[in-house]
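Hi W., the adenosine-5'-triphosphate complex you wanted:
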Amino acid sequence: MNNKSEQSPVDHKTVKAPGKLARMFLSLYDVGQFVTRFFKEGFLPPYEGRELINQCYNIGYRSLLLISTTGLITGMVFTKQSRPSLAEFGATSWLPSLVAIALLRTLAPLLTGLIAAGKVGSSIGAELGSMRVTEQIDAMEVSATNPFKFLVSTRVLAATITIPILTFYTALVGMLGAFLNVTVNEGTTMEAFVQDSLESITFLDIIASTVKAVIFGFTIGMVGCYQGYNSSKGTEGVGKAANSSVVIAMFLIFLEEVISVQFFALFRTT
Amino acid sequence: MEQKPPTNKNAERVVEIRGLNKSFGSNEVLKHVDLDLYKGENLVVLGKSGTGKSVLIKILVGLLKPDSGRVLVLGNNVVDISYKELLALRLKVGFSFQNSALYDSMTVRENLEFPLVRNQRKLTRAEKKRAVEEMLDAVGLLKAINQMPSELSGGQRKRIGIARTLILQPEIMLYDEPTAGLDPITCLDINGLINEVQERFHTSSIVITHDLACAKEVGNRVAMLLDGKFERQGTFSEVFDTDDERVKTFYEYNFIQ
Ligand SMILES: Nc1ncnc2c1ncn2[C@@H]1O[C@H](COP(=O)(O)OP(=O)(O)OP(=O)(O)O)[C@@H](O)[C@H]1O
Ligand SMILES: [Mg+2]
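Structure:
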């Protein structure tokens, strides 16, 4: 799988080719070690503060435009599509709260997560992958520095910090889209809109979304770093790392969404 | 071209390899390799492409693990050494990569600063600046200090790679094909640099190459990797004074060219 010394307990190449099941467990074990290493080393000094800030900026900046447009359009379209159903009951005045709940609870975290998986995950995977392939990671290692700390810890932390911020930003932009639609159609004022939507949101919603976004961010950073850091040699390794970063992160995000919806439902009274 | 003086074999051994085996799956690369590096010498390792030269020196810095054998580097057995000890050892062993492996998201200055600031945290800003500039000056590329690696030529990248390695003041230098893919004049430059490093920093070096002119110019001693073993070692003329077809082909091809 990789040729680093301090990390893989077994040199997979020298072991007799293991079967499919054994390989799966070996790679699960590898992933487990990778994640453990992050928690063991990521929070110990010396810190790579500058690189962390760099990465936060990178991640936020890279996805900002896409997230802004997606958020705005989603807010508008979702409001527009929900109107007829509510109108049947003469309840179009519920639109602000409906949209607020939908956006905050699910749409914003999920949209942000998926977009970041595409933009951020793939670029982390490709960047670390090409560093592995061109032996830049090995070069860091032989110069007695810790590439894991510099490359992986910073990126995972940056994604974990930035994705929640982006999520609330998406929700905000989405609400703006919804407001534009509502104010044109129902003539609702900004004040009324804000009040309606705030009233429907609970503290639990905010906590749940934050937790979800943190998990999504961690997932995106971890998957991208793992794929890139352990990418195979050769240029096709870079492409594979970028590609699988996106696919695996998206899959995990859906899975985590399903699980967390179940989990937070336990705390909801209504 | 004058021949370099032969190695003083009474000198201390900084690297001692005994019975080293390494294979990848069914591909046996190194078969029971024995090799010494004496203090202060430049040892040239010759060998066909794919014979395991890079693998050999990667084992010396713990990037690859041998299957069996004893590998002593500055008295440390790299096979069963703790990660912390390995880091301390890596500080004393410089590794210049075959493809330079410059950090391509950083400028030349940041490339050199990267190992420096992480290993010598007490340096002041001015000291860092001076160390970087001195080292770039030593490899003749001070003017490239603010350039990105992608803006440099292959030969310049090699030099920067060597400077980045030297900045930690290693006792042992490992050069992986420092002249591969360069024109003859740049090769001469790099050879000069390797010799200068030997004199100025008193390093002991292993220089991997296919290029016999380079071997002759920088090597106090030559070892040739043939089919997974160092069958021929000695001065340049000792190694090539043989009827072994594999060695003769190597020699003739290089000098007829
Ligand atoms: N990480 C690895 N995994 C599997 N096989 C490897 C690995 N590294 C090297 N090899 C194999 O080991 C053999 C020797 O490789 P090495 O890179 O040491 O050759 P080399 O002598 O340096 O050749 P060159 O002069 O072309 O650089 C090759 O057959 C290569 O395929
Ligand atoms: Mg090589």
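Residues B 53-54, 98, 176-177 surround magnesium ion (ligand 2) (CB under 6 Å).

W.
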